[in-house]
């Protein structure tokens, strides 16, 4: 288990995407405000603040847990940093500082890879995995809603400024990057978890997630044009189902009851957009049911939109969007089948429970109880 130079460069790219995403979101909100579109400005800013606040809560909770585990007292400076929304930057600072030391300073060619070196690499990998989990939270709490909002504004008004196009592109990059980076980091952090090696598995996994997400988010945008209340009710209903599913599975990710409750709320939100194995188990049946419902829901939205043409929507967009929704959904399902049939590290053990939660615990860490795949 080593933290390599390639891993370090991925971490650097991760913070660049994170900062760019924040800057673009603020830029879009300010632009809407100056144009007198106060509702869109508030919504855009609210999505960003909600995602950031939830991420800061988890980050500080993990800092406290790590300090307690190390026998140290909780430092008030960490609380202040998180209150000032600096938790992620603090984590990136520690991860990059120690990561540079692990990747570039130590000589990996020495005959004796000393225990101190192993501990350093393990520490850095755990820090990077924490960041990947937090970025995943932020992506689905802020990135996906932001993407839907910007598409809704673009299609509804028929024109957009550069900041909106930038927000859409950056959201796509953030969603794609965080999803793949999370999966790679999670597997690397757990010694008994098979790694996602090679470019083809990563690209296939990326396309599976991206295309299924894009198809669903476009469908939600169309439903918003039909009726905002119906669309919000559907999203609320799906969120409640996800939360109930998390409670039914009795997830055990957080040490405190309140943070575990918040975690299950976040899991419900993530399950609105994509499928994750929230606890170690054979996911063939739940995943099949999830995507069958997704296909039926997407087709239902398209049929409703065909039957009820809207004057507020630019009809020139409808045919290309309908085709895009269908094609991306088909491509997403195709890449899903290819990934799980050919590239998934556990494909030879698909009849067993997830190897992380199904086997005796080798090393206690929160990653072991996080979203699996």
TrEMBL record:
- A Pfam family this chain is assigned to: XK-related
| Cellular localisation | Cell membrane; Membrane
Query: Which membrane topology term applies here?
Result: Multi-pass membrane protein
Record-level GO cellular component terms: plasma membrane
Q: Which keywords, in A-to-Z order, does the entry hold?
A: Cell membrane, Membrane, Transmembrane, Transmembrane helix
Check the record and name the InterPro entries matching this protein. Answer: XK-rel, XK-related_scramblase
Transmembrane residues, as ranges? 12-32, 38-63, 205-225, 261-278, 290-312, 318-340
Domain of life assignment: Eukaryota
Keyword Transmembrane on this protein? yes
Q: Which family does it belong to?
A: Belongs to the XK family.
What's the protein called, per UniProt?
XK-related protein
Originating organism: Colobus angolensis palliatus (Peters' Angolan colobus)
